[in-house]
Amino acid sequence: MRMVLFTGKGGVGKTTLAAATAAHLARSGRKTLTVSTDPAHSLGDALEAELGGEPTEVDGVGGLFAAHVDARALLEGAWGRLRDHLATVLAGAGVDELVADELTVLPGVEELLALAAVQRAAQAGPWDVVVVDCGPTAETLRLLALPEAVGGYLERLFPAHRRALRGLMTRDRSDARRWDRTVEALDGLAGELADLHALLASPQTGIRLVLTPERVVAAETRRTLTALALLGLHVDGLVANRMVPVPPPDAPGEAARWLRERGGEQAAVLADLERLGTPLGTVEYTAAEPTGVEALLVLAAQLWGDDDPAVEQPPATPLLAVRRTSGSGRSLDSEFELALHLPGATSAPLDLARIGDELAVTVAGLRRLVALPAVLRRCTVIRARLDGDDLRVAFRPDPALWLR
């Protein structure tokens, strides 16, 4: 099963292009599910269909199903039960009831549940392709970072939870079944988080960044490309929407002059984006808003032509690579270089810090802890620099740790 996620700055047309792509895939004979995690829930408007939480077949093209994810309903369901379990554990450990209630509110849990619901819908049905209409860029970055972040949060909140819970059980045998249910709930959540992270990082999952060819929007797109690379996620391509038609140079009139000027600015933005090396598609500005399956299919034909929007792209360059740059063996004059491949990093605010055995990298407000390879844990950072799309960090052995 192939999964394609569409995201972009609010108002650039990502929902329309996600719906158009899904209709195009269904027309080609593949059973396609398109799901919206965007709180705006405009996917139904684009398809001119009434959508709910369960996949509904869309009229106008066979094999196309669509659904909206209602995160609030999920919050009151499965997560509510798990919260009760966690509160029980904390209360049993002597934590005040009010504090326990606060500790069991995981950050971003609504978005996490929405992503988990997409995964379940994708795996439960006979889909060849799942097209996801994500929220605006900032929300999507938080959404895609959640499986790893929440997994770390749970581990810090309940370290070695199975052992801790079994210890509590021995003190109160009458509550054994309650502790068992809590262990099962925690294990289930941890397993689901691991599956979510594996799905997002899989070569079968690709991301399409939608933008309008304007410098401000393009700058945000570059930062998003870098942030997604930091998360280890692959962007299959960029889509520039609402390209204006450019009249001939000799066309008279103020309108023609304006279109030529606007078209020249858009072309300059596209030329800058092409230097990123990510496949770039374009869609012309339509006179009428493209809603309904027929209009969406016309739009998709312009964007994709004979190309397959669900084809798997070649594997991306690995996020992390380490090499020795000087010295040999265990000599103290050795130097090593850690390279983090971050497309577009030259235009994104970037911060770097060493925290124990991890490197904290912050790009465009998104932070990730990168575990250092064993050899670098016994070294100190001596310098860092940007080299094109690579962040290169140099290390030198720490005499106090190197020969241990």
Automatic annotation (TrEMBL):
Gene3D superfamilies per the UniProt record, alphabetical: 2.60.40.790, P-loop containing nucleotide triphosphate hydrolases
NCBIfam families: GET3_arsA_TRC40
The family this protein is said to belong to: Belongs to the arsA ATPase family.
Domain ArsA/GET3 Anion-transporting ATPase-like stretches: 1-303
Record Pfam families: ArsA_ATPase (PF02374), ArsA_HSP20 (PF17886)
Domain of life: Bacteria
PANTHER family with a match to the protein in the record: ARSENICAL PUMP-DRIVING ATPASE ARSENITE-TRANSLOCATING ATPASE, ATPASE GET3
InterPro entries noted in UniProt: ArsA/GET3_ATPase-like (IPR025723), ArsA_HSP20-like (IPR040612), ATPase_ArsA/GET3 (IPR016300), HSP20-like_chaperone (IPR008978), P-loop_NTPase (IPR027417)
Domain ArsA HSP20-like: residue ranges: 333-395
SUPFAM superfamilies: P-loop containing nucleoside triphosphate hydrolases
Protein name according to UniProt: ArsA family ATPase
